[in-house]
Amino acid sequence: MIEIIPAIDIINGKAVRLSQGDYNQKKVYNEDPLEVAKMFEDHGIRRLHMVDLDGAKAHRIINYRILEKVASRTSLIIDFGGGLKSDADLEIAFESGAQMVTGGSIAVKNPQIFQRWIDKFGGNSIILGADCRNGKIAVAGWTEETDEDVIPFIHSWRKCGINKVICTDISKDGMLEGPNIQLYKEIRKEDPGLYLIASGGVSGIQDVELLEEARIPAVIIGKAIYEGRIQLKELLKYIENQD
């Protein structure tokens, strides 16, 4: 059964969503992310993907107080990302209650540091963020595109100990037009043992069903929930069957 992971993106301490990673296309959904987190928890959700968008822009952790608040007042298992660039950032994230952290830009720009994190905390606590546009890895809050192809990029880090990957097709993110299922199928075909977390574009419950049919292990859902395209009760059958 596919794992359901709702997302909370943070700007200025508020729960927001962007479209295609564009900070100029920001919509605030709740002034208090804790309220959103509690709503998820009340519906049986166990996992949460939290992104510090201010941190992604500033290249350092910013919204750790929000993380601390949500982690201390809910039982959600939180993976946290956005702007983690140093050992100090990582330490703050874990001390603030994250049980997993996601690193994307650092895996490209400072691979030695990222490798050190994997060696120290393990491939289940450190998640690789493989965010791509037109098949190429993008970094720095999606503002910079690299020459790295997404599948070889993932494969190289798998050999270095990574077990979990969040792959976001930026062109799909926040657009409510459906996820890039073909890309996820190709990644899984290359590496069936990878715990692949699909992200970006989920528009309704039918997309979740298609991802499960494609045997994708997990999916991050954001805007579809906030815009009412998916009701949390629709996800109950997936939530109840999660270990």
Sequence-ordered SSE layout with sheet pairings:
Elements lengths: L2 E9 L2 E6 L2 E9 L2 H10 L4 E6 H6 L5 H10 L3 E5 L5 H9 L4 E4 L1 H5 L1 H11 L4 E8 L2 E4 L4 E6 H9 L5 E6 L11 H10 L4 E5 L5 H9 L4 E4 L1 H4 L9 H5 L3
Parallel strand pairs: 1-4, 1-12, 4-5, 5-6, 6-7, 7-10, 10-11, 11-12
Antiparallel strand pairs: 1-2, 2-3, 7-8, 8-9
Helix pairs in contact: 1-3
General description of the model:
It is a single chain. With 243 residues, the chain is an alpha/beta fold. Helices cover 36% and strands 30% of the residues. It contains 11 helices and 12 strands. It has helices at residues 33-42, 53-58, 64-73, 87-95, 105-109, 111-121, 150-158, 181-190, 205-213, 223-226, 236-240; strands at 3-11, 14-19, 22-30, 47-52, 77-81, 100-103, 126-133, 136-139, 144-149, 164-169, 195-199, 218-221. An 8-stranded parallel barrel has the order 1-4-5-6-7-10-11-12, surrounded by 7 helices. Strand 2 (14-19) and strand 3 (22-30) form a beta hairpin.
Q: Going across the major beta sheet, what is the strand order?
A: 1-4-5-6-7-10-11-12
Total of helices: 11
Low-confidence runs: none
**How many strands?**
12
Strand fraction equals 25-35%
Structural class: alpha/beta
Q: Output mean pLDDT.
A: 94
Radius of gyration from the CA trace? 16 Å
| Main beta sheet | 8 strands, parallel, barrel
The CA-CA distance between the termini, in Å, is: 9 Å
